Please model this.
Amino acid sequence: MTSDGLLRAWRDVWPLGATVLGLVLFLGPLSVPWKLAGVGMLGLGWSRHGLKARELLRYLGGFLAFVVLRAIVDDYGLSTRWSYPIVWDRFLFGEVPTVALQRALLTPGHWDRFDYAMVTVYLTYFLLPPTVLVLLWRVWPHRLRQYVSATLALFSVSTVIHFLVPTAPPWLAAREGMLPGVTHLGAAVFGVVAPATYRYGVGISGNVVAAMPSVHLGVTTLMAAALWPTPLRWPAVLYVPLMGLAIVYGAEHYVVDGLAGIVVGLACWRWARAAAGSESVS
Model:
């Protein structure tokens, strides 16, 4: 490739990289100066290609509202539910899959590559959704609005359910003696490797009884739906069960939480598609 070709390629690539990096810095568990740096990177990325600011602002505003409301609803919602997901998991599988998986694969205090891999997959949730947002803008912009609308719908529905049916995750149920031999893998591994970042992330979450539905699985389902007509369809689709394994093995969610997240995600995607169709007709 000639130097002119490299220069043109760089001009096409750097705004995308700047925007992704800016979103990661802004949404990530970092201090205020880093967040301001993220805003600056976002500005650089947008200025080159004219990102649809309205959709990005809707996404960021919806995400921030979700974080705030999610932290509030556990203080004002109904009493915490502990047993129904345990009953459903046992009905479907004979045993709570988190218990069975950890008994077969996990040795507490001796983390192997599989344990680190599962924690890493879990943490990619905080990077890949904004990356897909930017990718849709840059490569498949006709799918951007539907992705944003479906994500905001998912946040809204999940917040209402978290308020009405606050549900404890497996690791918290284990602390109360309701499940045997369960380790909170994310806290055990990431809380030791990067304790300050982990504590910050827990503070941002602000609600430990928001297991039903799994927003992790809901968002990954939306990513797969958005990327389905693209060459990235199979990596996006395979990412859904991989994330499902990570959250169940790590004791973040029951299987029924994940299934509910997938159902809510698909319903929100279909609603967003119908809404986009009605807007185009009008």
